[in-house]
């Protein structure tokens, strides 16, 4: 196995491993450490069945089963189907493009360690792949904060609310989404998250505050909270923190859901098919011990 760092704000390519095969213990630990160090790992030229993608992802923690989403691989509710393809007039998967910058599961008390996506079909135009997935480095974003901001926010928490994200998605042209019901809001209540979180693999602090879900900083006046969140969101959007992954069919892309934020670019149409399988790994293991 060979790991080559990208020349951008984060990320690396991992060659010389077949993820369809059972993952040896030393390979597992190497990948886990690389995930903490690089944030995003691309394993090119893979060919995985849903059960193989599930087996790989589950080595790193329990897999989420999204009970609200009907689009999953047959027999594998933990393997979500992301797609813009329609068959017999009906979608075969969830179209995840255009969601804006966010961190999956930050609206939940139980946070996610990683996402693992496997590209089956990639939309193309004039020989160029579309639908990049973009990432920002929250290890570096924390490191570069001014000392006075770190001191001001140390120990503080922010409220993350699923409804903020939902309303952004509802506002998309042609969305068709309805407002969350009272029952849905009860199932996804706002949660409090530390603004600075200790990363479970690296042991370093990260900026865990994303524009998709964070709505206010607890203990601050509304105007002060709004100004600070605006500052944090602008700070993390600087180009030196950015990596944009250009997909190739066969790519398996694994990213750190605690040390990055991400965004799916919506630059393709329904006539440019996209099909991706996805598992989400919850943070359920002692990663510091495993990475030691």
Automatic annotation (TrEMBL):
It holds the Pfam family TauD. The keyword Iron applies. Signal peptide: none annotated. Keywords: Dioxygenase, Iron, Metal-binding, Oxidoreductase. Gene3D superfamilies: Clavaminate synthase-like. GO terms for molecular function: dioxygenase activity. Residues 10-279 form the TauD/TfdA-like domain. It comes from the Bacteria. InterPro entries: AtsK-like (IPR051323), TauD-like_sf (IPR042098), TauD/TfdA-like (IPR003819). Belongs to the TfdA dioxygenase family. This is TauD/TfdA family dioxygenase. It comes from Plastoroseomonas hellenica. The lineage of its organism: Bacteria, Pseudomonadati, Pseudomonadota, Alphaproteobacteria, Acetobacterales.
């Amino acid at each position: 196995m060979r790991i080559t760092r990208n020349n951008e704000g984060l990320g690396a390519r991992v060659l010389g491993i077949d993820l369809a095969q059972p993952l040896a213990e030393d390979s597992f630990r190497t990948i886990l450490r690389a995930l903490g160090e690089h944030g995003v790992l691309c394993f090119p030229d893979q060919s995985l069945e849903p059960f193989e993608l599930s087996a790989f992802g589950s080595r790193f923690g329990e897999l989420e089963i999204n009970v609200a989403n009907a689009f999953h691989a047959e027999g594998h509710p933990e393997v979500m189907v992301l797609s813009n393809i329609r068959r017999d007039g009906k979608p075969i998967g969830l179209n995840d493009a255009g969601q804006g910058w966010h961190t999956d599961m930050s609206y939940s008390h139980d946070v996610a360690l990683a996402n693992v996506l496997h590209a089956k079909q990639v939309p193309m135009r004039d020989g160029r792949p579309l639908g990049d997935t973009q990432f920002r480095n929250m290890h570096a974003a924390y490191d570069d904060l001014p000392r006075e901001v770190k001191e001001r926010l140390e120990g503080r928490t922010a409220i993350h609310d699923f409804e903020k994200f939902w309303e952004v998605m509802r506002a998309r042209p042609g969305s068709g989404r309805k407002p969350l019901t009272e029952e849905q809001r009860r199932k996804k209540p706002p949660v409090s998250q530390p603004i600075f979180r200790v990363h479970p693999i690296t042991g370093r602090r990260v900026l865990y505050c994303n524009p998709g879900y964070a709505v206010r900083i607890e203990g601050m006046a509304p105007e002060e909270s709004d100004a600070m969140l605006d500052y944090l969101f602008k700070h993390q959007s600087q180009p030196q923190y950015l990596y944009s992954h250009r997909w190739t069919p066969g790519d398996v892309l694994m990213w750190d859901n605690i040390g990055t934020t991400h965004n799916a670019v919506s630059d393709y149409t329904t006539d440019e098919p996209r099909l991706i399988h996805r598992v989400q790994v919850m943070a359920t293991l002692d990663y510091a011990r495993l990475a030691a």
